[in-house]
Amino acid sequence: MIISDIYSKLQTFTVAAINLVGCTVIFANQSTPRPKKPFLVISLSAFRNISKPILKNSDNDGVITIVTPVVTTASFQSYGDNLHSAETILSNLYSAFNTELQNNIFRGELALHRTLKHISAIPVALNEQMESRAILELELAFNNERTDDVGLIEHLHLTDIRLNKEYIINK
Asked: What percentage of the chain carries pLDDT values higher than 70?
């Protein structure tokens, strides 16, 4: 799974999980104006392999599929105008990770690995008014799959200098 697929699946899941009309779900570090509140920002960071690659057999053309288990930190930041509205949005999202919605959208390609930071309210003063803001950080797991054309050995040519013989081993 590539990173853009993860963002797409997370956005689909988040919109369905929070089930709030008028709440926009965006990605972090975009060069666009802030949307109207309430809105939620998704950010992925700290991609790391959690084991050595799992190699699958090569096909008849010498192409091998390499699968590596990876985890990433998914940060969800929610913004709202009403008191505790940001925490409510993230509470709905966090609860949805324990329902069938996760299976219906991710289809086993992405899963909650662990909670790094539970829902935390971080109110911010904005234009002399308090803005409801909350954050949730989860560690998500997925398999990174890539292919590599390693080629095939069609025959092996060996020379035994001790017996002065040559051997050809065919596939």
From this structure: 98
